[in-house]
Design goal:
The chain is an alpha/beta fold and 470 residues long. It has helices spanning 19-30, 46-51, 53-70, 86-108, 155-160, 165-168, 185-196, 216-228, 320-335, 365-371, 386-390, 419-431, 436-441, 454-469, and strands spanning 10-15, 35-39, 114-117, 120-124, 127-130, 135-143, 147-149, 177-181, 200-204, 232-234, 237-245, 248-255, 258-264, 266-269, 273-275, 289-290, 293-294, 307-309, 349-352, 357-362, 376-381, 397-402, 409-416. The longest helix is centred in the N-terminal third of the chain and has 23 residues, at 86-108. The protein is globular, with a radius of gyration of 24 Å. 45% of the residues are buried. The model has no long low-confidence stretch (mean pLDDT 96). The structure holds flavin-adenine dinucleotide.
């Protein structure tokens, strides 16, 4: 059926044609390996394009537009009757996604590698059984099967019914009221999107703050904006029950020692995703897992040395550029076993596309404290910065973390206008291991949002120079 090479049908078989899988396929085929991608989804595109990054960002941009239109008066512009057609907002998003997915289809079917539509599972360490009845063998594998929405924490929630992020993206009408369970990036982005399209939103989060991976000051700033915009935010809660109450759905939780109930037309379940590894029969291939997550070393190799994994199925960060990097590293290491590469999370970047946006790279103060890493930090607020005042974007701040001895930039955080774009200056600086002295000396055009970085850089440069001179 397949032309056999080195005793196998393919040099590399890649399971899953999402962001991680496509990156692995492109790299493997580019290195001259006989490569096959097996994609089992109903639609081609992967999570990022179909139901993740791209549709949510398309919606959040629409939320920014309506927010600006409603506040146009600030700049002396009269837009007194701002209204919206929710179905049309969703339809534009759908059109964009179709275009992005078409591009991915073209890439996957470009002929650089073989592309098969089927579900795959292992029958032995070198053989896959496909749902179309075929089997294929390969010398190496990259598993990139993504993630699935996690199971709800208690059965009452299942009985009450809820929307997942997938469901929320298919609505043609916004619910009048919504309870968002969770406080991660997906939860806060949907919370603000719906709130800006006039849904009454209540967030219920277990941790003491929303966005628990971020520094408390960043999370607190977003909570402040959410509350000011009319979103009710409960943090430090413990969910205990859910039920239907007439036409509404009610959630009960413990909060500050009290039992609290909130009711809304809909519940959005945004309590996370789980690696999608259940149906792969990994045990037949000798691949071990850490819970549902495929365990890998920094070379992206699993416990079976010829099998690699990339993306959400291995984690630990569900971020698309990480999935891409992991896929590229896996394929590179298969092609070049003599000069292997490894994944490095020093420049780990996270962006939350709310308004204000949050961009973060490298070390956080929370992490520095937990790992006992010495650091100095300086911040500067957007409500004292020329360009952001022109834009009336007064919320948020930038923060830099530096090594107290050398001044090397260890981390950065930007809560503010275009925070997801602005953080890239610090990613570039950190990639070149720049110091705060070098960043402060670098030219910054005036008046730009980006020049705000010079203030914390100068503050830290001054401090570190003083300490070095003692
Ligand atoms: C609402 C939401 C918003 C997000 N926003 C962002 C964002 O703004 N920025 C960001 O960086 N990340 C974001 N993410 C996360 C990002 O989408 C994922 O980290 C990324 O898409 C994972 O890529 P992947 O290749 O690992 O998995 P996927 O893209 O899910 O690809 C896995 C593929 O494997 C296929 N598959 C599964 N099992 C099998 C099998 N047995 N056989 C054959 N094929 C199989 C699936 O059909 C799928 O196409 C978001 C996620 C969500 C849910």
């Amino acid at each position: 059926m397949f032309s056999r090479m080195n005793g196998f049908d393919f040099d590399v078989a890649i399971i899953g044609g999402g962001s991680g899988g496509y990156a692995a396929a492109r790299t493997a085929a580019g290195a001259g390996l006989n490569t096959v991608v097996i994609e089992g989804g109903k639609e081609i595109g992967g999570l990022c394009i179909l139901r993740g990054c791209m549709p949510t960002k398309a919606l959040l941009y629409a939320a920014d537009v309506i927010h600006l239109a409603r506040h146009a008066n600030t700049w002396g512009i009269r837009a007194s009757e701002v209204s919206f057609d929710f179905a049309q907002v969703m339809a534009r998003k759908n059109t964009m996604i179709e275009e992005f997915a078409d591009d991915r289809v073209r890439e996957l079917t470009s002929g650089k590698f073989k592309f098969i539509r089927a579900h795959a599972r292992f029958v032995d360490p070198h053989t896959l059984a496909l749902s179309n009845g075929e089997t294929l063998t390969a010398g190496n594998f990259v598993i990139s099967t993504g993630s699935v929405v996690s199971q709800p924490p208690f059965p009452q929630l299942e009985q009450t019914g809820y929307l997942t992020s997938d469901d929320a993206l298919t609505l043609v009408e916004a619910p009048k009221s919504l309870i968002v369970l969770g406080g991660g990036a997906v939860a806060v982005e949907f919370a603000q999107f719906f709130a800006r399209f006039d849904t009454k939103v209540t967030m219920v989060q277990r941790s003491q703050h929303i966005l628990r991976d971020f520094d408390t000051d960043a999370a607190a700033e977003l909570e402040k904006v959410f509350r000011r915009d009319g979103i009710t935010v409960f943090t430090g809660t413990k969910l205990v029950d859910a039920r239907r109450e007439g036409n509404l759905k009610e959630v009960t939780f413990e909060h500050n020692g009290n039992t609290t109930r909130v009711a809304a037309e809909e519940i959005l379940f945004a309590l996370g995703r789980t690696p999608n590894t259940a149906g792969l029969q990994l045990e037949k291939a000798g691949v071990t897992t850490d819970g549902p997550r495929i365990a890998t070393n920094p070379q992206m190799q699993t416990s079976a040395p010829h099998i690699y994994a990339a993306g959400d199925c291995t984690g630990p960060h569900e971020i698309v550029h990480i999935a891409v990097q992991q896929g590229e590293i896996a394929a590179h290491n298969i092609a070049h076993p003599g000069r292997t590469r490894h994944i490095d999370y020093r420049l780990l970047t996270q962006v939350v596309f709310t308004d204000p946006q949050i961009g973060m790279v490298g070390l956080t103060e929370k992490e520095a404290r937990a790992r006992n890493v010495p650091w100095l930090a300086a911040t500067y607020p957007f409500n004292d910065h020329g360009k952001s005042l022109i834009m009336d974007a007064r919320d948020g701040f930038v923060k830099l973390l530096a090594d107290p001895k050398t001044g090397e930039i260890l981390g950065g955080c930007c809560v503010g206008p275009m925070g997801g774009e602005l953080i890239h200056e610090i990613i570039a600086a950190m990639a070149r291991r720049m110091t705060v002295h070098e960043l402060a000396a670098m030219p910054h055009y005036h008046p730009t949002l980006a020049e705000i970085w010079t203030y914390p850089a100068e503050a830290l440069a001054g401090q570190i120079r003083v300490e070095q001179n003692l």
